[in-house]
Amino acid sequence: MKKLLITGGAGFIGTNFVHHWVQNHPEDRVINLDALTYAGNLENLQGIDKSANYRFVHGDVCDQDLIRKLFHDEGITHVVHFAAESHVDRSITGPEAFITTNIHGTFTLLESARRAWGDDLEACRFLHVSTDEVYGSLMADAPAFSETTPFAPNSPYAASKASSDHLVRAYFHTYGMPVLTTNCSNNYGPYQFPEKLIPLVVMNSLEEKPLPVYGDGLNIRDWLHVDDHCRGIDRVLHAGRVGETYNIGGCNEWANIDIVRLICSTLDEMRPGDRPKSELITFVRDRPGHDQRYAIDANKIMTELGWSPEYTFETGIRQTVAWYLDNEAWWSRIRDGSYKEYYKQQYGA
Fold it and tell me: Fewest CB atoms less than 10 Å from the CB: which of 18, 221, 316, 345?
């Protein structure tokens, strides 16, 4: 029986992972710690909160006393660390929160785990969930990021995640901590906060609002369905080699403008209107330091651990669009006044 501390389990990826773990490993104890900032939503976890082996704790990963108490009271054996400030645009307008949560929060967790576990590390694991953005930007013809690609972060968000990756590595080499790191590509799927590209395009399309696309729309990302990501993390936690990093990617590169057009055509089919949704596409000023291309080489996790993505992007987009169509009440409730102010600041009136 594992006793998991999942941080950030009320956010997008964390929510999906909590659902995945409770459904697939009902014998394990799950402690979900989340600060419930703007992107955290307990509504995501309805039904899970009735599980006997599940507990939600409202708290901050930087709260050292709380973290140490959780390790002591719950006998935590495994940590899966999602909690992070994660939106690049917000890191540009307000970087301090990213430094605090992503760096100091990771340090607090590592130090609490080190003190709680002592020398009894055989059955313990600390899995740190990171991003491909730590590697920087790729030219169009450059090989994909591998686990040995040098770090070259270009935004405060990416720099804060790179810093936390280095801390995790240091705790392995200095203290022998049983750590694992995963660096994933862009996730999509159910429960994603509306400021991200795919839900933003879906929601604005349904409301006949402009679909903002940065610059020329030719920035390229590798897209990974959140369910495939959760399966990858599960696999690394169970079978990954301690101290190693595993890149998890969808093997699925798309230019932003092509994604927007795909969503538009999917919505035209599933929820037709008076005109094609693509007519709503609006190019806006590019964001500072916008990385041109990300691509993940997932060969290591595929060959070592037998993981591979199950979703094609076309299949995943249809499932994701259908989820947002079926859950309009969910996303309508979370787009409150603070979100509207952020949207106005980011994209103009």
Answer: 345
d(Cα 294, Cα 212) in Å, to the nearest integer? 20
Start-end of H helices in the chain? 12-24, 64-74, 88-93, 96-98, 105-117, 156-175, 197-206, 226-239, 256-270, 299-305, 313-326, 328-334, 337-347
Of 60, 85, 89, 157, the catalytic one is 157
Do residues 196 and 38 touch, judged by C-beta distance below 8 A?
Answer: no
Residue 162 CB contacts under 8 Å (≥ 6 apart), including other chains: 134, 151, 153
Residue of 34, 60, 85, 132 with catalytic role: 132
Q: Which residues contact 199 (CB under 8 A, 6 or more apart)?
A: 192, 193, 324, 331
Whole-number percent of the chain with pLDDT over 90:
84
- Does the annotation mark 304 as catalytic? no
DSSP calls for 87-155: -HHHHHH-THHHIIIIIIHHHHHHHHHHHHHTT--TT-EEEEEEEGGGG----TTSPPB-TTSPP---S
Place of tokens 């920087």: 136
CA 92, 97, 103: angle at the middle one, nearest 5?
105
Alpha-carbon dihedral angle through residues 296, 90, 15, 18, given to the nearest 10 degrees:
70
Q: What is the pLDDT of residues 241-266, one digit of tens each?
A: 999 999 999 989 999 999 999 999 99
Rounded to whole angstroms, how far apart are CA atoms 228 and 295? 16
Domain 3-189+225-248 is in which class? alpha beta
pTM: 0.94
Break the chain into its structural domains and give their ranges: 3-189+225-248
Q: What does the block give as tokens for 144?
A: 């994909």
The pLDDT tens digits of the residues spanning 3-60 come to 999 999 999 999 999 999 999 999 999 999 999 988 889 999 988 988 889 999 999 9
Q: Determine which one of 60, 89, 133, 297 is catalytic.
A: 133
Distances (CA, A) of 183 to 37, 129, 151, 163, 211: 23, 6, 12, 13, 29
Residue count of the chain, please give it: 349
Q: What span, in angstroms and rounded, lies between the C-alpha atoms of 283 and 211? A: 8
Enter the DSSP assignment of 274. S
